[in-house]
Amino acid sequence: MDFLPHTAKDIEDMLSRLDKAELEELFEPVPQGLRLRRDLAVPEALDEVSLRAHAVELAGRSLGTDRLICFAGGGAYDHHVPAAVSALASRAEFTTSYTPYQAELSQGVLQALFEFQTLVCELFAMDVANASLYDGANALVEAVNLAVRATGRERVVVGSTVHPHYRDVLGTYTSGLGLDIETVAFDPSRGLIDWGAVDGAGAAALVVASPNFFGALEDVSEAAARAHPCGGLVIAVTDPTSMGVLAAPGHRGADVAVAEGQALGSPLAYGGPYVGLFATSERLVRHVPGRIAGETTDRDGRRAFVLTLQAREQHIRRARASSNVCTNQTLIALAAAVHLCWLGPSGLARLGEVCVRRTAYAAQRLAEIPGCRVRFPGPHFKELVLKLPSAADEIAPGLARRGYLAGPALGRWYKGLADCLLVAVTERRTRADIDGLAEALENELAQ
Amino acid sequence: MSENSGRLDGRAKESGRLGGSLQSSAGTRSPADFPVVFELSCPGRRAWSLPEAGVDGPTLEELLPEAHRRKKPPSLPELSELDLVRHYTRLSQRNWAIDVGAYPLGSCTMKYNPKLSEEIASLPGFRDLHPFEDDELVQGGLDLLGTLERALCEATGMARMTFQPAAGAQGELTGLLIMRAFHAARSDTRRRVIIPDSAHGTNPASVTLAGFQAHETPSDERGLVDLDALRGALADDVAGLMLTNPNTLGLFERDIAEIAAAVHEAGGLLYYDGANFNSIVGLVRPADMGFDIVHLNLHKTFATPHGGGGPGSGPLGVVERLAPFLPAPVLDWDEGSERWRWDHDRPQSIGRIHSFHGNFGINVRAYCYLRSLGPEGLRQVAERAVLNANYLRALIEQAFPTAYPGPCMHEFVCSAARLRKLGVRATDVCKRLIDFGFHPPTIYFPLVVEEALMVEPTETESKETLDALAAALNQIADEAESDPELLRAAPVSTPVRRPDEARAARRLRVRWTPAVTGGGRSQP
């Protein structure tokens, strides 16, 4: 099955207009010696009926959260995606358009991005937001790069409770830039960084996650108190679904707020496409990476939207751009915006309350299992660390066989937490689900 | 005189789709301003429907200490679900898209995105997989990725490929960091990466981000890399060369074998920017041209939807000797257990580049496209893309001469410089083209061509569409002579006309606020 409109006569007529006899002649500039003189060894073409059947069979060989009850977290969450969000974000007028270079033909996407930026600012209590980045890790990297540019410093202090993958990506991205990235250990009894003991001198930024990778709430204000007197910035990594109940980074002294936006309207999709949320204060706007939609007026005085401050960007500034990002995650940002509008302030507060209270219930219920306890005391937002009697990566597969997905096991990143498992509780997990997980775990451990 | 004499009336489109949506904007507001979602808000209204907590135990206030609690939820808009649906549906109607009409945006490969790929990507067995699930639970998804990797390696001649990069620019950075790691492993410090002056802006930006210095090399009178200048720039501090082939002028770098030999001789690596891979897929493999590192833009060549500016997917492939440096983990087939598994034990890896496994949902769509087309279909993609571009070029070349002679590949860059003496710019041509029902080409890029119009029709546009597009462009060229004001006044058919970009940057408004943007909710 191809998607080519050409009839044999079309090809003949078109070649004739070009004074060519064969398609081959169009490739005259390609040296003969470089050409592939055989078919690519890729699978043969399938018709639509066969391809669909094949795909259904392939999809059936994985067990997703449609068939397993999902308590897995670690930066990707099984939240409800409202039907209206899926329907609107899959409209072909959005999906089959591209970066809004021609503003007159792109007011839909441009305005949606302007609204998205406003929603992100409201969410985090910040002044300006960009039109999205690739994912949470990428948003953190770009925030660090902003801090390094804005302060002219190269020391960056990162909490060890920031998502381990984000820290890994940060290390990869900055490996060529010679930054001095320092990781601060957490208090093993509380699962939190003692930010009051961190030396902010000479630091471009302190990076603090709250809720952190363990679902615990860090003291962003304390980090700000250490960074600001020394002229450094605070970068807060947060969870957008918590913003109806938890204090916003902007209210706690953060200069840059970043987050993974998947929980707002995107399915798990094995890790992507997700969306990086990025917001900061107005004084740093010219250091912001990526696209920004701005309001202006048109020739007739009507409100209109355009991509603005493009002089920061790679297609203008090239080697001196504030970032190399070009294609971003617009459609996922749009889904997040629709989701936030669907929730409104009261829905976001309800979502947060359900997560916090059910997570507290899960903490209490799971701690009743002999040999198990909640590793770090609360408060938690929607995730907790459960200490098991033995290696967590050996128990999790057994839970999956009983129909429950939990994790990740933490030993991969934290040597002292090999017997610990992350457990995430979203609004999709009912009390009965939590009781079921507890029962399954108890049975698994008894085996 | 225009090649196609059928006269079109751009103004006839005035009552068309995009214009029409303006009339139907929120009834209570002035029709001049389409409402921002916050202006539709009514306190107390809601779309959401969520369960109660439904558990005993402490209240929220008891669970969250005062210092961590938000005093007042964020000021999100309050709408009914119907308000919400109408708002975003109307926004969608104020947007051009491939599904609406031709979109010959150069360098972007705006081809048809098959519907079946969308349907398949939403199957629960792909859509609902958690990135931390054990390999054992996601064998179907891994099989898809493994097969896609093999197929794309075959198409590029690379040995291994990573799917972590979420878009082309992230692939570029990944490739450059691999280049850096390769040299470092040989205790070789190399500082410069050479880039042609016609390159995409992401190339030099990625070079800087990777900690290298971008060294620009000029194009010659053919629009190709100036081989002598390149040879002059090569030295033992050159880490590599980044090249798009065909280049951004739509021209095949016919000296590529010599270029590759020269770069390799100087100890550098060759990076292939896959932005223009659509024109050679199935016909020429980057590895056979001498490239060591390749990124593909699956949202271009492999027909995944561009989503208004993303998500894309920018997988990065390398030759065998660079494979140890790929981002970890790498997907392997375990013969013993006959299972796919992620190999995290990669001591020479540059590290992760993405939070998880890249844009998996996009890779599923690319897989569907690949399986739809097969080997013959892929080759035909390139052939027809090149046919369409050359045909369209021929139809308009009198009015808009191409900057460089000879046949083009999948796109061509022509110039509107001839019209400048009439007071007409490339941007005026584009705005006028909108009134004829086409998305304009890319303009003012590449930078080496004055008043550049970069046109990429793609293989999925029919001859009739190309004929109509050419007729419109030729008529516009005539209008530039006879009535240039028509061009300067365009577009007339769109919801807004020529937004003031300078003003947007000068009086920065990048978020809605009631004070500066109007009076909040309009009263009925």
What's the topology here?
The complex is a heterodimer of chains A (447) and B (524).
Chain A: H1 8-17, H2 48-59, E1 69-72, H3 83-89, H4 92-95, H5 107-124, E2 128-129, H6 136-151, E3 155-159, H7 164-173, E4 180-184, E5 203-209, H8 220-227, E6 233-238, E7 256-260, E8 276-280, E9 293-297, E10 303-307, H9 314-317, H10 330-367, E11 373-374, E12 383-387, H11 392-401, E13 404-407, E14 420-424, H12 431-446
Parallel strand pairs in A: 1-13, 3-4, 3-5, 5-6, 6-7
Antiparallel strand pairs in A: 2-8, 7-8, 9-10, 11-12, 12-14
Helix pairs in contact in A: 3-10, 5-10, 6-7, 10-12
Chain B: H1 17-23, H2 60-63, H3 81-93, H4 115-121, H5 124-127, H6 139-156, E1 160-162, H7 168-185, E2 192-196, H8 202-209, E3 213-217, H9 227-233, E4 238-244, H10 256-265, E5 269-274, E6 293-296, E7 316-318, E8 330-334, E9 339-343, H11 360-396, E10 412-415, H12 426-435, E11 442-443, E12 452-455, H13 463-482, H14 484-489, H15 501-506, H16 514-517
Parallel strand pairs in B: 2-3, 2-4, 4-5, 5-6
Antiparallel strand pairs in B: 1-7, 6-7, 8-9, 10-12, 11-12
Helix pairs in contact in B: 4-11, 6-11, 7-8, 11-13
In short:
The complex is a heterodimer of chains A (447) and B (524). Chain A is α/β, with parallel strands linked by helices.
How does this structure look, described?
- Chain A contains 12 helices and 14 strands.
- Chain A is α/β, with parallel strands linked by helices and 447 residues long.
- Chain A folds into 2 domains: 115 residues, Aspartate Aminotransferase, domain 1, CATH 3.90.1150.10; 256 residues, Aspartate Aminotransferase, domain 2.
- In chain A, helix 3 runs antiparallel to helix 10, helix 5 packs parallel to helix 10 and helix 10 crosses helix 12.
- Chain A has a 7-stranded mixed sheet with strand order 2-8-7-6-5-3-4, sandwiched between helices.
- Chain B has 524 residues and is α/β, with parallel strands linked by helices.
- Chain B has a domain of 255 residues: 3-Layer(aba) Sandwich (Aspartate Aminotransferase, domain 2).
- Chain B has a 7-stranded mixed sheet, sandwiched between helices.
- The termini of chain B are far apart.
- The longest helix of chain B is centred in the last third of the chain and has 37 residues.
- Chain B is built from 16 helices and 12 strands.
- In chain B, helix 4 runs antiparallel to helix 11, helix 7 crosses helix 8 and helix 11 crosses helix 13.
- Chain B is 34% helix and 10% strand.
